[in-house]
C-alpha cells in the first residue's frame, strides 16, 4: 500500500492506495515540524491513520508546510517510519513541491498557491527548477487571503470604503476596531489566519464595485510581483491551488487574461492531483 499526504498547519489529507488499485481517504490534524516533535507526529498518525491501513505500507509520499530543509524532512520521515516500520521508501517534501506536482504533473509550468498565504515556483518534470520567493505575511503574501483581509481591514479602519459596505462590515464584525485588530496582529499567534478570515466578506460582496476592485488589485499585484518575474511566463500555463484561487477563480482568470497570461488548472486542494501524479509516476 502507498500513502500520499498533503498537510497544512490545521489538517492533513491522506490517500491510501491499495495494491488492487483501490483508493481510500483519511484525515488527521496538520503537521509542522517547526512546532511538533517526532513523538507528537507519530502519536497522531498511529491513533488516527494506522487503524485505517489494512495492508503493509511500501511507500509514503508526504508533502507539508514547514518542510523547507533536509532536517525538517527527516523529522517527518522518521515520525512516519516509527508507525510504519515496514515501509521501504518514505519521502517528505515541501507543500510547494506538492502543489507543483499536483498542478503540473510531469509537464513544465508555473505553479501557484493562493490560500491563507501565497507561493509560486516553476516546475519541470516534477521538480522545482526556479522560484520567486515571497517574503511572508508581513512583507509579502500578495494574492493571498491574508493579504486580502489585511487590505480590507485597513480600508475599514481608515474609513476608505463606501458607506454601505462600511455599515455591512461593521454589522457583521461588530468587535473589529483598532484595538482588537492590533491585538490580533501583534500579540496573538497566527495573524495571517486572523486577517485571512475576512476574505469571506469580500467573497460574499464581490459584486460590489469596491470589493471587486480590491480583489482585482490584489491579483494584479500578485502577477506583477511574482508570476511576471518568471522567464517566458506567457509561454507556459500558470496553475493554481488554494481556497482564494479556487473561490475567486473567475476574477483570477479575468485578470490573467488581461495581462496575456494563460491560466491552466485551478484546484481547491492538491491531494487529487498528487494521487494522480504518483499513480502515473
From TrEMBL:
Listed InterPro entries: ATPase_NBD, Euk-type_GlcNAc_Kinase
Record-given protein name: BadF-type ATPase
TM stretches of this protein: none
PANTHER family on file: N-ACETYL-D-GLUCOSAMINE KINASE (PTHR43190)
Organism, as annotated: Siphonobacter aquaeclarae
